[in-house]
Design a protein that fits this description.
Chain lengths: ~280, ~290
C-alpha cells in the first residue's frame, strides 16, 4: 500500500541499506536516494562514530529502522533495557515505522543472534501479536514484521507462515528462499498474505546449494525474485521497497542501480492495475 | 527421534520448545541433539537433523566470526586453531547475554584468567591483549558525557573537588606492551556487520589472521580513548596512571594527585593540560 497505518502513512519510494563501505561516498557525493534503512542495533550505542555518521545522514536523508534482535516470537517478555535504547534511537531518527522479524532468537536471556523460525501455532500467534502491540505502544511508531528465510519447519505448526503474518514487511526474497527449502508455491504465499497490511518490502540476492537455498544478500536480485516482487506490487500496491546487500558489498552506484530496478516493476504494476490486471502469476 | 513433540498450546510450552531448540544450538559444534530434531519436519532432501544442523553451524560460525572480528590481536597471538578452541570454550561457558554482538567479548579477559589452559603458556600476554581489545570496543562507541569546563570547577578547593572520567576511556596497567602489537595486527575502526538474517555462503568466510611477533614482557600503563570519533591510545607515566585511577575511584583531586607519588608539580600541571585537551574529564552523572 502506498501509505497505511503500518508504515506511518508515508509514501517512501526505493531505498537501500546504509552500510559502512558506502559512508564516505554518501557523505561526500550526497547521491539522491529515496531513503536509507539502518540496522537499529548498529546504532543502539552510547556514542562514537556510529552516531556521528547517523546524525550526518539524518541531515540529508529519510532513515527507516530495521532491527535484528527484538525477537517478537520469543516467549520471553520484551527486554526493557533494549526497548529503552531502541526508543532513544527512534526519537533520534524520527523513523516513521520500525521493522523486525517474525522469529525468535533468545530464551531466558541467552541470545542466539540468529533469526530462528517460529512454530506457527495459535498460542505463538497470540503471544507474538501481544508483543508486537507492546513494542509498538512503547515506541510510539508502527512495527512491521518481516518474514524470515528459513531452513526448518516444525511438526507442531497449525497454520502456514502467511496465515500467521499480520503487520507485514514483506521480504520477497525470503519467500522465494523458503518456498524452495520447504516446497510450497511462493504465489500461494503472496496471495495469502493480508495485502492491505503490507507496510514495506525487501528484495535481495541468494545463493543456491545442492540441497537448499541460503539467504546470503551478496548478489544482485535474481529474476524469479523480481517476478515475485512484480506480483507482490500488483497485489499490495506501490510500497516502500528496500534492496538488502550485506556481504561482498560492491560500489554504492552498483547497489543503488540494482535497487532502482524495482521501478520497472512498479511502473509495470501501476500500468497493469489501470487495466484491472491483478493476482496473475 | 526420541519423543513425539507435544502440542504447543501455551506460552509456557512455547518457552519449553525454545529452551530445547536453544540447547541444541549452543551444544559444542559437531554434536547432534535428537530431542530437538524431533520437533523438525524432514523434507525430500534433508533429514530433520540435517536441517537442525544448518542452524547449529550458523550459530557457531556467526559468533566465532564476531569474536574474531573484535579480537584480531588475540587471534594472531594464538594462531587459528588455538584461537578457535579458546573461542568455542569461551562461548560454551559464556554464551551471549546481550542483544548486541558488540558485547560478546566483554568477559573474554575474565575467562582467560579463569581457564588458563586454553592460552597456556602465554596466558598473561593473551589476557593483556584481550583487555586492550575490549578497551578499544568501549572507546569506539562507549558513552561520552559533556565535557567539564574550567568555569564549573573554578573556586572549588582541591580537597573537595571530585572529577569524573569519560566512560569510554579505559585505564590499563599491563605486563606486556600490547598496544603496538595489536595495532600492527589490525587497526580496527569499522562497525560490526549485524545485518538482517543474511548468511555467509558456505559458512565462515575463511578469515586469515595476520601474524606479528609477540611483544616481550614489560610493564606499560595505557589510556585507551576516543578523540574526534577516532580510537587512540596513550602510554602514561606510572604517576599519571595512579592519579587517573584515583580520580576514577572518586577521590578528591588533592588526594588523587597525592596518589601519584613523587611527581613535580609542573609535570602534574602538564599532564592535566593534556588530559583536558583530550576531553577525558566530564561532568559527573546527575
Amino acid at each position: 500500500m502506498p501509505a497505511n497505518r503500518f508504515n506511518g502513512q508515508t509514501s517512501h519510494g526505493i531505498g537501500i541499506g546504509l552500510r559502512v563501505p558506502h559512508y564516505a561516498h554518501i557523505l561526500d557525493k550526497k547521491p539522491v536516494v529515496g531513503w536509507f534503512e539502518i540496522i537499529s542495533e548498529n546504532f543502539m550505542v552510547d556514542g562514537g562514530r556510529p552516531l556521528e555518521i547517523l546524525d550526518r545522514i539524518l541531515e540529508q536523508y529519510h532513515v527507516v529502522q530495521h532491527g535484528v534482535s527484538m525477537y517478537l516470537g520469543s516467549a520471553d517478555r520484551p527486554d526493557r533495557a533494549h526497548l529503552k535504547k531502541l526508543r532513544q534511537l527512534v526519537r533520534r531518527t524520527r523513523t516513521p515505522w520500525v521493522s523486525d522479524h517474525l522469529c525468535w532468537g533468545s530464551v531466558d536471556g541467552t541470545y542466539s543472534h540468529d533469526l530462528l523460525p517460529m512454530p506457527y501455532t495459535f498460542a505463538a500467534a497470540k503471544r507474538t501479536a501481544e508483543k508486537i502491540r507492546q513494542v509498538s505502544d512503547y515506541l510510539g511508531v508502527p512495527v512491521c514484521v518481516e518474514n524470515v528465510s528459513s531452513y526448518a519447519e516444525f511438526h507442531v505448526s497449525e497454520m502456514t507462515e502467511w496465515e500467521f503474518l499480520t503487520e507485514v514487511l514483506l521480504d520477497v526474497n525470503n519467500i522465494y528462499v523458503s518456498s524452495k527449502n520447504h516446497g510450497f508455491d511462493p504465489y500461494d504465499y503472496l496471495n495469502g498474505i493480508p495485502a492491505e497490511r503490507v507496510g514495506q518490502m525487501h528484495v535481495a540476492g541468494h545463493t543456491k546449494f545442492e540441497k537448499y537455498i541460503l539467504d546470503t544478500h551478496d548478489h544482485p536480485v535474481l529474476d524469479p525474485v523480481w517476478k515475485l516482487y512484480a506480483h507482490a506490487t500488483r497485489r499490495c500496491g506501490v510500497t516502500a521497497t528496500l534492496l538488502e546487500w550485506d556481504d561482498k558489498i560492491p560500489s554504492f552506484d552498483e547497489v543503488h542501480n540494482e535497487a532502482l530496478k524495482a521501478n520497472e516493476f512498479i511502473a509495470e504494476a501501476a500500468e497493469n492495475s489501470k487495466f484491472g490486471i491483478r493476482n496473475s502469476k | 527421534m526420541k519423543s513425539k513433540p507435544k502440542p504447543m498450546g501455551s506460552t509456557a510450552e512455547l518457552r519449553a520448545f525454545q529452551r530445547v531448540m536453544m540447547g541444541a544450538l549452543v551444544r559444542p559444534l559437531g554434536s547432534a541433539d535428537e530431542d530437538a530434531a524431533g520437533f523438525i519436519k524432514p523434507n525430500s532432501r534433508l533429514t530433520a537433523l540435517e536441517r537442525l544442523e544448518i542452524y547449529h553451524r550458523m550459530y557457531w560460525f556467526r559468533l566465532i566470526d564476531s569474536v574474531t572480528d573484535d579480537s584480531p590481536g588475540l587471534a594472531s597471538l594464538l594462531g587459528e586453531a588455538k584461537f578457535d578452541r579458546l573461542v568455542r570454550a569461551y562461548l560454551g561457558k559464556y554464551p551471549s547475554r546481550s542483544f548486541t554482538l558488540r558485547n560478546l567479548c566483554s568477559r573474554l579477559p575474565q575467562f582467560i584468567r579463569e581457564e588458563p589452559r586454553w592460552t597456556a603458556p602465554r596466558t598473561a600476554l593473551a589476557r593483556d591483549v584481550a583487555r586492550f581489545e575490549w578497551a578499544q570496543t568501549v572507546a569506539y562507541d562507549g558513552e561520552e558525557r559533556p565535557l567539564l569546563s574550567p568555569a564549573e570547577i573554578a573556586g572549588v578547593p582541591p580537597s573537595r573537588l571530585r572529577l569524573a572520567l569519560q566512560p569510554c576511556l579505559s585505564l590499563l596497567a599491563l605486563d606486556f606492551p600490547v598496544d603496538d602489537f595489536v595495532m600492527a595486527v589490525k587497526k580496527r575502526n569499522t562497525l560490526r556487520g549485524e545485518a538482517s538474517n543474511a548468511r555467509e555462503a558456505g559458512g565462515r568466510a575463511g578469515r586469515r589472521v595476520k601474524r606479528v611477533t609477540p611483544p616481550r614482557r614489560g610493564r606499560v600503563y595505557l589510556a585507551v580513548y576516543r578523540l574526534a570519533g577516532r580510537l587512540h591510545y596513550l602510554r602514561l607515566e606510572p604517576g599519571g596512571f595512579r592519579i587517573l585511577e584515583a580520580i576514577r575511584a572518586g577521590r578528591p583531586l588533592a588526594r588523587a594527585i597525592a596518589a601519584g607519588g613523587r611527581v613535580r608539580p609542573a609535570q602534574v600541571e602538564e599532564w592535566f593540560a593534556t588530559w583536558m585537551k583530550f576531553g577525558w574529564f566530564c561532568r559527573t552523572p546527575l
